[in-house]
Design brief:
By secondary structure, the protein is mostly helical. 75% of the residues lie in helices and 0% in strands. The chain has one domain. It is built from 14 helices and no strands. It is globular, with a radius of gyration of 20 Å. The two termini are 33 Å apart. InterPro entries: Bact_Transport_Assoc, DUF418, HGSNAT_cat.
Length: 351
């Protein structure tokens, strides 16, 4: 029974990574295909996924980092994480040359700070998350959030300048360290709980759902009240990812909790049904597949003239086709290799 629980736990996290990856593909494909802003159920799904899928990914990265810190010698884990952060920074900056919404270079700093904070106690990590949320509000109130942006084409021309890079990284980029580091630290906190316990899994599922509903209800209640007093301050109480304010942080963490809890809970059954055998290899190659959805997925769409002016139905169809191909590729690749190509390269270069 213990062995089965352990397998369920590990494979449940791989399943969660794959689900988060699918969510990111849907959001990114919808953006580049110009399928945002339309009406209908599919558009509502896209809106619900925006910022949440990526946040779930970062929480899962935090869980992985926390588990690594507990399994091995802490100083070695920190040193290895530093090297991998450097690898991700280089990879992310190269990716920025073709995809302005790259998240990898942000990941480099999440891992850097996350590794440094591994020795910190769980309660202190909670206070740090609250501090990041408060700092994000203070920065939005005192600094120019639109600085560096060209909102007409969603580019950041000042990114490659020292001041622009730091501003984008910590304040007003797509996934700024303040407060997005909070998702990583929340993942580290979760790694210290008994994730293999069904009680913990149920708490993540139902607790996450309760917090998500509560946060959205409070946000919806406060927005019209604040709008009557000072419309420019409404962004402070929304659950939108831009700018990422405290309610967004709480909503993102609650969604990640639900996804992790559901995947861990369902893993034993899905394993018996053979689902995990097919799907999970893709969940273990998300770095490779993330780059593939930009270089190959968007590249093919560009050749087919599908970038811009498309419907949500076309965006979902493209996402479904691509993710299906990813599952097939990863399953075949896993028959011959232990890791994905980019994961193997990172392992060789950074340990």
């Amino acid at each position: 029974m213990a062995a089965a629980t352990k397998i369920g736990r590990l494979e449940g996290l791989d399943l969660a990574r794959f689900i988060a990856f699918v969510g990111m593909v849907i959001v990114n494909f919808s953006i580049v295909m110009g399928a945002e802003g339309t009406e209908g159920m599919l558009s509502n799904i896209i809106h619900a996924l925006e910022g949440r899928a990526a946040a779930t990914f970062v929480v899962l990265a935090g869980i992985g980092l926390g588990l690594a810190g507990m399994k091995g010698e802490l100083n070695l884990t920190i040193f290895t994480t530093f090297k991998r952060a450097a690898f991700l920074l280089v990879l992310g900056l190269l990716n920025m040359l073709i995809f302005d919404a790259d998240i990898l270079h942000y990941y480099a700093f999440y891992f850097l700070f996350g590794a440094l904070l591994l020795p910190v106690g769980t309660r202190a990590l909670g206070w740090l998350i609250a501090g990041l949320a408060g700092a994000a509000v203070l920065m939005v109130l005192t600094l120019d959030y639109e600085a560096g942006w060209n909102w007409t084409d969603l580019t950041y021309p000042e990114f490659w300048t020292p001041v622009g890079f730091i501003r984008n990284l910590f304040f007003n980029g797509w996934h700024p360290v303040v407060p997005w580091l909070g998702f990583m630290l929340f993942g580290v906190m979760l790694s210290r709980s008994k994730l293999s316990s069904t009680k913990t899994q149920d708490a993540l599922m139902f607790g996450g759902l309760l917090v998500f509903l509560l946060v959205n209800a409070i946000s919806a209640y406060l927005q019209p009240l604040i709008a009557m007093v000072e419309p420019e301050l409404v962004d402070l109480v929304t659950t939108n990812p831009i700018p990422p304010m405290p309610f967004y942080l709480m909503a993102g963490m609650s969604v990640a909790s639900m996804v992790v809890g559901i995947c861990l809970r369902a893993a034993p059954l899905l394993k018996d049904l053979g689902v995990l055998t097919v799907v999970n290899p893709a969940g273990r190659q998300t770095l490779t597949l993330y780059l593939a959805h930009i270089l190959l997925g968007m590249g093919v769409m560009d050749e087919l003239g599908l970038l811009g002016g498309q419907t949500t139905q076309v965006a979902f169809l493209a996402s479904g086709i691509f993710c299906t191909l990813c599952v097939i590729y990863a399953f075949i690749w896993s028959r011959y290799f232990k890791r994905g190509p980019i994961e193997a390269l990172m392992r060789k270069v950074a340990g």
